[in-house]
Amino acid sequence: MSLIAKTPKPPYYAVIFISLRTEGDNGYGEMATKMVELASKQPGFIGVESAREDVGITVSYWSDIESIKNWKANLEHQEAQRLGHEKWYLSFKTRISKVEHDYGI
Fold first, then answer.
1. What is the pTM of this model?
2. The dihedral sign for the CA sequence 33, 31, 78, 49
3. Which CATH number belongs to the domain containing residue 55 in this structure?
């Protein structure tokens, strides 16, 4: 998998998830891998980029808002969200943005 997502010509949407983790893995790594695999099978999914240092940043790209809503409602994703609230995150913030321009090399 490429580290930089291959995205289509805009517009499309970005879900930006910023997090501060609790100490220890506690099953987080396995669940994170499972969620990327599951998201990649969802209609409207375009790609994902992720980095972690002191702050974790994961950006997933979607074709439309409806696809994002459907992903949020996915039962396995809801279970991961519950576990995140209970044991993996000290704090987090989710932002949804419409991408109108992108460029790069």
1. 0.92
2. negative
3. 3.30.70.100
